[in-house]
Structure formats: C-alpha cells, structure tokens
Structures
1.
Amino acid sequence: MVQTITSVEEFDQLLKDTPHLIVVDFFAVWCGPCRMIAPAVEALAKEYEGAVTFVKVDVDQATELAQRCGVAAMPTFLFYKGGKKVDDLTGANEKVLREKVARHK
C-alpha cells in the first residue's frame, strides 16, 4: 500500500521512524507521466511490502515539502534510507525505478 504524505512534519517523522528504504513519489494530479507510472508504483509497493515503504506527495498539496526537497519536475522519486537521501529519479522510467528500488532495498 502506498501512503500519502501531506506535510513536512509527517515526512520528517516518517524519515525518523523508518530505518529501511523509503521511496517518495512526488506527483501532481494533472501530470500525465505521473498517472502512467502510478500502477507500477502500486505494484512495487505490493512486491516489496514490509521491506520498502512507498509514499506519495502531491506537490500541489504539499508545496513546502516539494520545495524543501528540490522537486522541480514530476514525477520525481527520492530514495531515503536511515533518514538520509541515497538516490533520486526524475521521470516516469519504470525500468530505472525498479533497478533503484532493488539496489537500495
């Protein structure tokens, strides 16, 4: 299951409380590529359930968080482990997304 993060505080708490890999999907409702890759993100969340936490952030609802994370294009995926950013991916490239999840899990 993919959780939705709506605030900086919620995001910071998640980073603090989660030692394993977190994949943060910054998206926008109006973004076509975001809608195209959404089913792949859901599938990865099921595949790695319990080992990787997947969260979505709507950049129009959580503007402050998107700005703090330096998100300029959607979709942008940020990868965190042990509270630190370990990787990123901009664009709806399912193959690269899968590779990065497998590499950092």
2.
Amino acid sequence: MEKKIESFGQLDFWLLPAGILEVRSAAGLEKNSPLTLAEAKKIEAVQAEYHRESGRSIRLLVRIDNMTNATKEVNAFWKTAESKLNDPDTSGIALLANNLMTKMLGAVSLAINRQEYPTKLFQSREKALKWLESLEER
C-alpha cells in the first residue's frame, strides 16, 4: 500500500510497496514552478531519513511529468558533495516522463548529472517500478 510520508513546497513524498520512494507533484498542482534549491535539498533529506530509519537501499521514482525545469541553484547543487551524500546507499533512480517536453528535460538531466548508481528514464510507471524492484540492495 502506498503511504504519503511528507510534503514540502510543490512536492509530495510517498513510500511505495517494495520500499520505493516516489516524488510527485503536490496534489492539485497542474503546472509546477521550477524546482527550488530548498526542494532539491528536501529530496536528499527524505532519502537519507528513509535509509537511516529502514536500513534499506534507496530506490527513487521521480515523476517529472509536471515539472518545468530547475533553477540555476538547483543545477549547481546537483554537482556538489552535499547532493552526493546518499549515493553509496542508492540502488537506482527512475525518472518518469510522460510527454515530449519532460522526456527531453529528463534526458538532459541524466546526461549532465551522471551518477554512481543506475538511472533510467521511463514513460511507463509500471515499467519504472519493475526496474527499481529488480535492483539489488547496496
């Protein structure tokens, strides 16, 4: 069963079966503003808290279907050591993009921000979840 564990800014954080974390646009938001630095840091904090409390690897599904872009500060943050603190505990991240614009945004993001763990872009939530479930604990 899915369980909403937190909300922050324009984001909702959900815990899914099989220990997968999902980041979604907050309920009721049809179009988001650019992702803020505070929201990016909150994404990292929620992952760290999940790993600390559960002892499990991080498997993250990020729904970018309503996201427009990220601020310059966010793009710079993803390259810092602070944003990499969860990397050793991360099994993989799936980005879910269901339209051409967000698919392009996701592809650019994956190309620019290479990670030590598997990352993949999906158009199907079911395929993304299946892929995340197949990843081994770290």
